[in-house]
Every structure is written in structure tokens, then in C-alpha cells.
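Notes from hallway chat w/ T.B., transcribed later so I don't forget. T.B. wanted the structure written out for a chain they're using in a teaching module, and asked if we could keep both sequence and C-alpha cells in one place. Agreed to drop them here.
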Amino acid sequence: MKRSPLQRKESTGNSPGPSPAVAAFAEAFVIFALFLAVKTAVPLAAAFFGCLGGEASFADGFRSAKASWIVSPVSAVILVLIISLFGRCRTGSRVLPYGMTSGNASLPAYFGAVLFGCALQLSVSAVTVLAVGESAASAGITPSTALRIISAAVFSAPCEEVIFRSGIFKKLRSAAPKNAAVLISSLFFALCHPSLQAAVYSFAAGAVFALMLEKYESIFPPIAAHASFNLFALALPLIRERGTAIAVLCVCLPAALLLPSVSPGAGDSCRRSCALHGQ
């Protein structure tokens, strides 16, 4: 029997929407896309205003702005503000990102997080020395590079943890199993890094940061690990010889693999909290 237009309209209106997992992935992807867009828009704006001032060509200004220490933290802060404003518009009230409490993290948890970040960075630095050779490693770190590293530790690390762990991972975890949420959020985090080497260790680090949030229900241990990882890039000039690099790798890589041990079943309360808040 042919249905009337009214019946067709009612049937369409009652059709089920996307599954919670699909909706969570869509929201996580939007946050990821916004991060890339803002990270590209900031150096574009700097290059544009540089051209207006007659300082350099647009292409040169864009390359210079991308290499500047201030681009990454400014981009991250802008996106955190956008996400916070969007959440406030949706709920009508101010909502802090998930994990902005001490959770069940104790002092040893922070100590282990810092040790993990340092051990992972020392391992990456040792691999870099072994890959590029002693001559490249002996070049040292310039003041501008040091400023960029410190900026990444102080500003970028907290903002990126709010974006990728409190935002993307938490969205996925509210509707997906732990392993899937960890893998997808870590993949998003890795895709934001330019080189293959950076993407590989960023994927591993992102997985551990997500598991820290899952275990401790607090964003601060992942921030401590991320900041110490960024800051310890200053140690690269200390590892100039291949023998030193091999020794550091033999000590630090096992430590980086053993430190982020996560107790089984630690994430149930995290998932319930995400689901209760609808985040």
C-alpha cells in the first residue's frame, strides 16, 4: 500500500541516527581536522601580515613562520579555546575538559610519567644519532631551537594533551573499546607529525599517554610525561658518539617499555564517567 506524504515524513523523522561509535569517531575527527586547520592557518596569517609589512615573500614568510617556536603553542591554545567555546555553546554552561582533576594519580604516578618521557626521548635521541651520524649530532642546539623545545614543553604539551587525550581519546572511549580508542587517537596524534620517525614514536607515546589518562582519570600525568619528553630533546647534544648512543639506548629503551605498565581493568570508571557526562 502506498504511504501518504505525512506517513513518509513521520517514518523518516523516526529513523535511527548514527551509532554512538560512529558519532564519537565523527566528533573526534572534527577535533583532529580543526587542529590541522588551525596549525596551518597560524603560519599563513603570519606570512600574510609579513608580506603586508614588506618583510619577505609569502612563501619565505610561511616557511619562516612554520619553523618559529611560537606557532605550535599558539595553534594549540587557539584550538583549546575554540573547543571550550563550542562545548559551552552546546551545554549552556562552562564545562572543563575531562581529566582536569587529580583523579587517582599519586606522586609515584607523576614520577613514573616523567621518567617515561625522559627515557623515551633519550631513546629517540640515541636512535637519531645512530641514524644521522656523529657529525649531525655534534652540531648542537641553537638558542632558537632550544626556545622552540622549551615552548613545546611548557605550552604545546598541555594543550595537545587536552586536545588529543581529553578531547579525541575521551570522545572515542565514551563509545568504543579501550584498545580501539587508544589506537585511533594515537594514529591521529601521529599524523600531526611531519616525518616518519616522528610519527612512529608519537604513535607509541600517544598510546601510553592515553593509557595514563585511562588509568589515573587525570590529564596531569600525561601532561607531565609529554612535557618531559619534549624538554629532554635538549639532551641530544649530550649523545654525540655512537658508543654513547648505544649505551643510552640499551638502558633507556627497556625503561621506556617497562614504565608504562597499566593494571588490568583500570579504565572501567573512566568509560563510565565519560558516558555519564555525555562527552
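Follow-up for T.B.: The longest helix spans residues 20-52. Might be a good example for the class.
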